[in-house]
Fold:
Amino acid sequence: MSTKEVPIVIITGYLGSGKTTLMQHILKQEKRKVALIVNDMGSINIDASLLSTTGNKVAQVEMVEMQNGCICCTLRDEFMDQIERLSADKSIEAIFVEASGISEPSSIAGAFLNYEEMNDQTRVYLKSVVSVVDVDRIYREFLYNLTSDEDAEDGDVINLIMDQIEFCNVMILNKTDLLSREQLEEVKTGLRALQQEAEMIECVNGQVDLEVLLDREEFDFEEVEAYSAVQRALNNCEHEDVKACVDEYGISSFVFEEKRPFNREAFNRLIEEYPEVLIRTKGYIWFADDWNHVQLFEQAGRNASITELSEWVSAWPEEELDKLEADFPDIREDWDEVYGDRCNQVVFIGKGYEKAEILKLLYDCVESA
Structure:
């Protein structure tokens, strides 16, 4: 009898495609107890923080954050250690891995299958590699380059998107509500030029049933590799450090942290003229005219949004704050005398940007003391 009982589902997709939104939806379904590994290239794992603070019943979820590296290379050994640790919990029925937006799925799958071959008593097996595709962004920005033989103007990014589309057995076509049926069919035709066999699932806001991802045939590496129209060998992400892995696609990131609030009007003006070199931005911010609420700022390509989330802890009534501090005495470790736990903490990911120029734009929006 096979010891393999715990399916692994790897969720990939380019920056801003909707991976975290998909995971939020899956976690809310509560059909099975699942574990979740979230990998983020930045030194702050915004995705994991968001998943754990937006009302999901995290008691049903074992969540592991892996950050400041990539599970396809620098964090590969740690990734497999976490897989094995989670699989030892007999109550966990499936493990989902939300990969970094710039990860190569074939490298992750290859590392996992190599581990599986060397550990024949492992309880885990690879069920699916899922690529989440932002169909609106593909249509608006990349469709011509995906279907053209000419050199793409932003070739490194196009290559990464191709890698993620080529190597999967499930494609989730997200944000379909932003395109007409004709436009969507045009995107699907372009995707099929790269990937002939993977099942395509259309959705809005990551609304995909958990069982659709789990109830399917076991993953076959060679078969999926053969799906690719280009058939490139992608299992060569053997870098010595994170920067090398990032530089393969010319993409790098940095974290902006500042206690002082943003001026709302100045920040909105920045969004209106947002630097095109920034591919993806995500993090928590706050405004000088609202000392109560955490705001989530997200940008992917031409789309940017600010969403009001929960309250800052320091905005709670004093009696509730005292009770919380009694239960969690370390809550004031990073407490500011003026701002409490309020802070701006944002990850910026881009290609060909000057960090000093981006920082100047940000500090121009910060309220003076």
User: Anything to note?
Assistant: The two ends are 67 Å apart (CA to CA). Residues 82 and 297 are 30 Å apart (CA to CA). Residues 251-363 form a domain with the Hypothetical Protein Yjia; Chain: A;domain 2 fold (CATH 3.30.1220.10).
